[in-house]
Amino acid sequence: LKPAARLAPAPCRWNSGLPMNIGVLFVPQQEAWVVERMGKFHRILEPGLNFLIPLLDRIRYVQSLKEIVINVPEQSAVTLDNVTLQIDGVLYLRVMDPYKASYGVEDPEYAVTQLAQTTMRSELGKLSLDRVFRERESLNASIVDAINQASDCWGIRCLRYEIKDIHVPPRVKESMQMQV
């Protein structure tokens, strides 16, 4: 890697663009600002006019309360009948508890994306290739349930998971067409 590429910080939605504490703050609608007083959690600022003590209070996290859409990258998964599929999806999330989303996990979006990928692989491993295409809705629902069980302590709620594409290997595709 180039030295400049290693030193560049990764973009992080939770910590970027933190507002300065000038005493009087206006929090926008659908945002929650997490305030620390002398390094310890103090309170969550609600939308509207808020007052803070300069030098003592610091805005540590800005959490968006809007629905977040995350692309789940393509991954390979093996079905019950040993067919390798390439599958990707879309995840719809919402921060329900700004405190938990700030202090429960380092990077909530990354954690939920990884959880969605591993759950998808494990759910596909339980089904044969024929059933994967028929039971797409139940696959989506079981992934949402698994994510919600794990992400409850992170203050995040998964609203939906949608499988975008399922790519079958060319040989398997040809044999499926011959079978039809």
TrEMBL record:
It is found in: Mitochondrion inner membrane. Keywords: Mitochondrion. Residues 22-180 form the Band domain. GO terms for cellular component: mitochondrial inner membrane. It comes from the Eukaryota. GO terms for biological process: mitochondrion organization. CDD domains: SPFH_paraslipin. It is a lipid-anchor. Its main location: mitochondrion. Belongs to the band 7/mec-2 family. Mitochondrial protein that probably regulates the biogenesis and the activity of mitochondria. Stimulates cardiolipin biosynthesis, binds cardiolipin-enriched membranes where it recruits and stabilizes some proteins including prohibitin and may therefore act in the organization of functional microdomains in mitochondrial membranes. Through regulation of the mitochondrial function may play a role into several biological processes including cell migration, cell proliferation, T-cell activation, calcium homeostasis and cellular response to stress. This is Stomatin-like protein 2, mitochondrial. The lineage of its organism: Eukaryota, Metazoa, Chordata, Craniata, Vertebrata. The gene is Stoml2.
